[in-house]
Amino acid sequence: MRSMRRLPLRGTALVAGLALALTACGGGEDGDSDGATGTSLKGVKLEVAAVWTGGEAENFKKVLAGFTKKTGATVTYTPTGDNVAAYLGSKIQGGGPPDVAMLPQQGVLVEFAKKGWIKPLGDDVKQLMQQNYAQIWQDLGSSDGKLYGVYFKAANKSLMWYRPRAFEDAGITQPPTTWADLVKTAGTLSDSGATPLSVAGGDGWTLTDWFENVYASSAGGEKYNQLAKHEIKWTDPTVKDALRRLAELWKPNYLAGGADGSLQADMPKSVTAVFGPDPKAAMVYEGDFVAGVITGETEAKVGTDAKVFPFPAVGAKPPVVGGGDAAVVLKENKGAQELVKYLASAEAATIWAKLGGFTSPNKAVNPASYPDDIQRQIAKSVIDAGNDFRFDMSDLAPAAFGGTKGSGEWKRLQDFLKNPGDVDAAAAALEADAAKAFKN
């Protein structure tokens, strides 16, 4: 899920006026002519590991069933838990890794490649990537000039989801387009008696996504890239400025359940707190995969009961932030390579696209495959962003800092959510953890 850049769209244009343009993109309806594997693998048994659980896991299993139908291979799915790197590391060192894994952190892909834990992909997979993926996705899946990963699932993480009825009841007629507007909107909602925000503070990765959107827009792309590589410190004034901005919204009275309640909420719970039968808040921030939670766990309808607007501009431009899950081969065998080749095809992506809560960076996927206009536009925005898509900063970092539950950036931002008044302490703690992780 983390899992997860797009060209920003403003206001309600995300939903309206785009249907005609969408039909002009992508390949055939089922994406079945893009070179997907047709090799017979009858009798071959494969194991695939990924972070997905619940509805996401069930949808991915349907993709794997498509591979089984096509090749005859038997594929078993294993959930890794939140700490994918630790899970896979223990399996590799114990001599029993899965054949294929989905890595939600690009930094982990590079680490594993350098350790020789994952295998370079074949020329046929490279050809599919060159045909159907922007160069940035090829680069993100590579290390030292070799392709190791196929980004099967992308995430547009520059989205704010809201309940239109709450806006209407508060007299809000337009979604905010700037950070100042967003803060004002939150105040108006609070004054009307509504709690403005549901925040998934129990999942530290959602807080890193909040920070990255604010930082990308307020500090700009060059600073973003520098901070991602730890070329500037987390005590830099630009970092403190972004934290101060977050503090404007992370007020206990603006949060469903207050700070303590937010720190107990995971991502799905934060969504149902807005769109469930007894709503506790008006807005929730997170990526395109929120649509899957709305559809799978509430009675709300995306596009009517649940709407979305781009993450507002903090600086001159709105942020363009996202993530993705890369399929990598851990065991060198024909079945594993063929499965990753299949995941590089539009045919595989189309299966999940039709189910919702999914975005593919594969240009050959027909936008008509997505179940509604909102999800079609979210997917289109990822494709349109091309090489301007900016990858999730925490997923570029060493896992010890950017991807470990209960430590590093996840923990420090949870601490900040609980006490958003001490910016200097938060920045110093972030820097101490980053310095240690990047040194190692």
From TrEMBL:
The keyword Transport applies. It comes from the Bacteria. The keyword Transferase does not apply. Keywords: Signal, Transport. Residues 1-26 form the signal peptide. SUPFAM superfamilies: Periplasmic binding protein-like II. Belongs to the bacterial solute-binding protein 1 family. This is Carbohydrate ABC transporter substrate-binding protein. It comes from Actinomadura craniellae.
